[in-house]
Amino acid sequence: xxxxxxxxxRLKPGKEAEYDAVHAHISDELDAALRTAGxxxxxxxxxxxxxxxxxxxxxxxxxxxxxxxxxxNIEWQAVxxxxxxxxxxxxxxxxxxxxxxxxx
Length: 104
Prior knowledge:
Number of strands: 3
GO molecular function, one term: racemase and epimerase activity, acting on carbohydrates and derivatives
Mean pLDDT: 96
Strand content: 15-25%
Shape: globular
Number of helices: 4
Protein name: L-rhamnose mutarotase
Pfam family, one: rhaM
Largest sheet: 3 strands, antiparallel
CATH topology: Alpha-Beta Plaits
Oligomer: single chain
Distance between the termini: 19 Å
Helix content: 25-40%
Structural class: alpha+beta
Order of helices and strands: EHHEEHH
Number of domains: 1
């Protein structure tokens, strides 16, 4: 069984096109690192500077712990830190957004 985690991030002003371009193709190494960490799907929607992610992963906390020390992810996060208002340092017990409703 996997978890479905929703996340929200925000781009720095004027970084929309660069963010889209960077995500047009991620490296095979980053793809492999995410999959090794248990990610089965990661979707991102953008409205202006607002980013909404849905991550399907075996264990979100274990994924974050594994990626925190992965050199490929560290390099990727350095790129993201130039684009996002608040960079993710992979510390803490983040569990994404709280779900408040679902159509049964």
